[in-house]
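Here is one such tokenized protein:
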Amino acid sequence: MDLLRFITAGSVDDGKSTLIGRLLYDTDSIKVDQLETILKQSKNKSEGEIDLALFTDGLRAEREQGITIDVAYKYFATEKRKFIIADAPGHIQYTRNMVTGASNSDLIIILVDARLGVIEQTRRHSIIASLLQIPHVVVTINKMDMVNFSEEVYNTIVADYSKMADMLKITDVTFIPISALNGDNIVNPSINTPWYKGETLLNLLETINISNDINYEESRFPVQFVIRPQSEDLHDYRGYAGKVLSGTYKKGDVVTILPDGIDSTIKAVEVHGIEVDEAFAPQSAVIRLTDDIDINRGDLIVKKSNILKVSQEIEATLCWMDNKPLVVGNKYLLQVQSKRVRCVIKEINYKLDVNTLEKQEQFDQVGLNDVVHVLIKTASPIAYDSYNTLRANGGAILIDETAHTTVAGCMLS
């Protein structure tokens, strides 16, 4: 059974938490004790109604204010697929949290209030989805019950959003009219939208093809751990454990270990402790080589025929997540997969207007939630791909070495 990671995004009060609560409730994915607790806390319990948003609004501040602040992760499964949901904040103040949740997502659900249509936050979240190259976009037009399930309202929003999607070069967009509160077109088709001939949201999530999103041509295997049991029966065993980000690996493949550029040949591939003919993305595996090479955590094993970048000067587009402003000369740790090196910000080339995608070359400072293009100088070479070419190996984070906190998410160029 495969896994779909998706994120919900939208403006404040568009109904993201309610939508996720409805998905969990209607698929019987809520434990009995949790359901009893939510029933006690629901504002409308006297009327027998459940406040579905409470299933995801886990922080006390979220429940008191009625908004999502942090990214809430929920897990559920149906007979067809497993799911990890990231419920992202809708307020502009928490754009960084939305970026964090979207970075690993296969699909994004963007909620639009049927009464308001496409607004500034809709554009902002769509631009972020475009920047992060999330493969699939689902626009759920929520609160259709408040516009009498008007087909005209639905068609107007579809037309408005489609124009923006064309500008952002978002190609895979699906539109679904819903009422998260009442469950229309969430799990079951709604009798209130006889004019809508498309899928329900759950059916789309269960059947959308995500296997085509994986690159099987370029093979990338970052080493996470070197296995050396050094026991009597495994005295000479040396295995390199990690996750296949893309491509495939099998016995006999000629590979290169980066950033050092040393060549070797695969002696064996193991998955779940069993030797197999081939490992492929996104499996976790152990690779054993014919040569004893000094390979460390963070080194990258690639097919010898593959081409990628190895450099100490890296251009990147980053979303700044720290309250302290970013300035040229700041020193951080750059982490690409399991590789972590010291680095310094050499140049800030421009700031990106997330509402228009315009490049602003004149600005006072880079602050919280700003998106900028920078030049990073690392203490040692890094092997990486352009985010536009291979998303799986083109992302990174900046870490404050003193506070040990993430200060930026990066898309490497």
